[in-house]
Amino acid sequence: MENEKRIRLGICTPDGPVYRRLGQLAELWGQEMCIRLDIYPAQADSPGDADLLFFEAGEGEAAVDQWAAGRRAASHFPALIALVENSRQAIASYRCHPNALLQRETDYAGLAAALDRCFPVWSPGMIWLDLLYQRERVRVPLCQVQYVEAQGRNTRLQCAGGMIEVNKPLGQLAELLPQPPFLRCQKSFLVRMSAVAQIQSGMLVMFGGQEIPVSRKQVQEVRQKVELWKSGF
What we know:
Layout: E1 7-12, H1 16-33, E2 37-41, E3 52-56, H2 61-69, E4 79-84, H3 87-93, E5 100-103, H4 108-116, H5 119-122, E6 128-133, E7 136-141, E8 145-151, E9 154-159, E10 162-166, H6 170-174, E11 182-186, E12 189-192, E13 196-200, E14 203-206, E15 211-213, H7 219-231
Parallel strand pairs: 1-2, 1-3, 3-4, 4-5
Antiparallel strand pairs: 6-7, 8-9, 8-12, 9-10, 11-12, 13-14, 14-15
């Protein structure tokens, strides 16, 4: 079912709070995107076998520049993301050819936008479902699944590109969906919590407009879990 590749993300900064904040956001991003991710403190001049490297503009860029000069031709070279506080730092960091810039005091949306620019680097770490669909095998990245619904002995998956029905019962498929970011809201449904727009009158209203009923006994629990998960963003 799953790709076993793990993406190594090194964070190079002398600022402990910045490291912890970036690490927390990156861990949340990895869970939400269903990516196998390892996060570790890196050194600017020797980041090890990083796939992604956050480096501090104005602090580590000289070391990164020197190290990068000898590695550009290597088959394994990480995506670089510069942590900047102002436009001057951003301009100075360009000599390191960063893939993206990230405000030092960032939020989840900023981090996700920077990492989106590095998609070819981290995409091998995505977790996929390998399923039977209309007598053919299909591979579905978990990050595209919005919710799943039992349909007799089959299961419907609502994905970013539309709905597909696969030959696997929901009970078996549920074992392949990490929780979080997925949540079982009743016997017949699992939802991606970030795809829930609101909860009203015992229904989950998804961003696509679909309404999913919640078991009456679970409404309060589901509401708390969804709100707690989304508060991390």
